[in-house]
Write a structure and sequence with these properties.
alpha+beta; Cyclic Phosphodiesterase, Chain: A; 4-stranded antiparallel sheet; 3 helices; globular; binds adenosine-2'-monophosphate; Cyclic_Pdiesterase; EC 3.1.4.58; RNA 2',3'-cyclic phosphodiesterase; hydrolase
Length: 179
């Protein structure tokens, strides 16, 4: 049976990806970890894993019905998780819209057999991987604002020694029509 490795995510505008890559290069020495490629910077909403085309199609139908107004992401927090070896960027206060969207997608995924982590959802953008040694974090003097207008289903594709994330589908964030 054909499967794809999929996850729902927020994509970042190209300009923000470039700004983050520049800031990361200024803040973290090369030995801190493996940088995630600019085009791969994203915020995962719900990880699905390897799913069949049937399950993927069903989850896409459900995603298309979601009504959730657009929101603004304030990227003003960073941290280091030594165990998975991740340095991340996130929000001191995650917007309610983001949490609601992630909760819904994670619940729909779980109902369709995509096991969800028991850990509480901590929205983050992974900046560095393989960061298992101690990492000095930059002072919290950064703050990027980003208007999020859509969410996406991304496929993780490993080819020629590199992982790329390809958009399978995108949906606009929109308020319920009220009818
Ligand atoms: P991470 O960046 O914090 O590692 C694609 O792999 C995306 O799904 C990554 O952003 C990754 O988060 C996230 N993800 C969540 N759970 C995962 C899992 N069990 N395996 C791989 N990726 C996972």
């Amino acid at each position: 049976m054909a499967t794809q490795r999929l996850f729902f995510a927020l994509e970042l505008p190209d300009t923000l990806q470039q700004q983050l890559v520049q800031w990361r290069a200024d803040c973290f020495p090369a030995e801190a970890g493996t940088p995630v490629a600019a085009a791969n910077l994203h915020l995962t909403l719900a990880f699905l894993g390897d799913v069949s085309d049937t399950t993927a199609a069903r989850l896409q139908q459900l995603a298309a019905r979601i009504t959730q107004p657009a929101f603004t992401l304030d990227l003003d927090d960073a941290g280091h998780w030594p165990r998975p070896g991740v340095v991340w960027l996130g929000c001191q206060r995650a917007p309610r819209g983001l949490l609601q969207l992630a909760d819904l997608l994670r619940a729909q995924a779980a109902r369709h057999g995509c096991a969800q982590s028991a850990q509480p959802f901590h929205p983050h953008i992974t900046l560095l991987r393989h960061a298992t040694e101690q990492v000095a974090l930059p002072p919290r003097q950064f703050h990027w604002r980003c208007d999020i207008q859509h969410f996406a289903l991304l496929a993780s594709v490993f080819r020629q020694g590199r992982t790329r994330y390809q958009a399978v589908a995108r949906w606009p964030l929109r308020a319920a029509s009220g009818v």
